[in-house]
Amino acid sequence: MLDSLPVRPAAAPAAERQPPFGSSRVLVIEDEADVAALLRLHLSELPAEVRIAGNGEHGLALALSAEFDLIVLDLRLPRLGGLEVCREVRAAGRTVPIMMLTARCGELDRVHGLDVGADDYVAKPFSALELKARARALLRRAALSKAGRGPVASLSKEALQFGALRLDRARHKATLAGADLALAPREWDLLCFFAEHPGQAFSRAELLDRVWGYGHDGYNHTVNSHINRLRTKLGEGSSRPSFIHTVWGMGYRFDATAAA
Ligand code: CA
User: Fold this and answer.
1) Ligand 1 center to 101 CA (angstroms)
2) Sign of CA dihedral 234, 239, 240, 246
3) What's the pTM?
4) Rounded Cα distance, 33 and 259, in Å
5) Which residue did the predictor score with more confidence, 222 or 144?
6) Mean pLDDT to the nearest integer, 114-133
7) pLDDT tens for residues 33-52?
């Protein structure tokens, strides 16, 4: 049983439901025991109480029956795969952040992973630093959302709200102080992607990969021109604070506090 893997020997059963203050509850769904042990080792440092499910069925049952602050979900699981688990968790109305792990670096998997409701992905082999940084970002966002404070007032499926900026997902419409921004479809995709990952910096290559997907033409100027149009529509460059910040030598970052 992977559940009883003795990496942290003192974990009392009661601690699973009532973690110490400041500790998060993380569910790892991973069938490879050595990878699962490594994940437990790194994620415990967040700090977090880590539970491990060795297959998709067990993972899904745990995800639906217990409260977690983060689910780390392997894409390649025997029988019930990661995408199905992710879809089922979202279908049950669970908004817990989900980080997908993928051994494939194919863009299609990433796009599919995000389409079924995953919040982020990490490709194997992962670095401990990247894994922990991404996990922390997801936990922080979820904590702010749960507490009803912070820039993200709403993280529902239907709408994202950042102060005066509202993204109505059902109608694919972005408004700023009630005024329709009249975004083109790709500008909408880009803004939604940024809004779903507040504070995270993305390179132009990452944006092409994750917003344009596998059909993109691979040119950085495609990203630049869309960002410029989006900034103009958001009224940036005038007196309004910027939502989209340039991270020099890296790419772009969405600042959700711009509207606060
Ligand atoms: Ca696997």
Assistant:
1) 9
2) positive
3) 0.53
4) 45
5) 222
6) 81
7) 999 999 999 999 999 999 99
Residue 251 CA to ligand 1 centre (angstroms):
32
Q: Look up residue 21 and give its two tokens.
A: 């203050």
All structural domains of the chain, each given as residue ranges with its CATH number in brackets, are 14-146 (3.40.50.2300), 159-254 (1.10.10.10)
For strands 120-123 and 98-102, give the pairing.
parallel
Phi and psi (nearest 5°) for 187? Answer: -65, -40
Alpha carbons 166 and 223: distance in angstroms, whole number: 22
Residue 100 to residue 109: CA distance in whole angstroms: 10
Query: How many whole angstroms separate alpha carbon 74 and alpha carbon 32?
Result: 9
Say if residues 194 and 183 touch (Cβ distance below 8 Å): no
Centroid of ligand 1 to alpha carbon of 14 (angstroms)? 29
Q: How far is the CA of 113 from the centre of ligand 1 (A)?
A: 15
Distance, CA 175 to ligand 1 centroid (Å)? 41
Strands (E) across 55-172 are located at: 70-74, 98-102, 120-123, 154-155, 159-162, 165-168
